[in-house]
Amino acid sequence: MSSSFFRVFFVSMICSCWFSVASADAFSVGDQGSDVAEIQGALASLGYDVSADGDFGPGTVAAVKDFQAMHGMEVDGAVGPATYEALLGKDMPEVSRGSNVYQRRIVQTAMAYLGVPYVFGGTTPGGFDCSGYVRYVFAQAGIALPRMADEQYEVGRPVAAGDLRTGDLVFFSTYEYGPSHVGIYLSNGNFINASSSRGVVIDSLSSDYWGSCYIGARRIM
Per the residue annotation, which of 17, 181, 188, 213 is the catalytic one? Predict the structure, then answer.
């Protein structure tokens, strides 16, 4: 959803006392690094469709859930001590939390609302429009964004398509010229957004439709 009024040129970043990260003792969506790549490599060796790119995205979550279900474990998509040992045959190392803590929180929150219906002007889990969804997700990490997609396009800094990373905002020119649609980049060319026809879903930047109307990205964190 876009607006031609009152563009906002700043982002307020607040680390609130209530901020927390789920499953602090587990590798989960949003995590990155060599430990994640090792987990992915083990999954791939078992025949799961996962690339060992070190980026714990939706595909890795799905593979972990399948592995957990097959082994009679709690199916949560996170790799805690029990899942790690069953998968790799050794004790799990300490999970390091670094600069990606905001990315992790944002991706976890974004994924929690998959399937929520699209509502024009919606800003709550009862129904979202595209920019209302993005604004709500970032607010849960203590990051205040403007309300409209074209306003959100003015914050942060521009990012080249080849340099996208988890948590970047991706923008599209859809029903009108300029940034009229926004989503949150996940990994491997995928992003999550509140689609007017399907609600909150994961889409690919390389699809015919989204690829043709993609106009750029901004990095907030």
Answer: 181
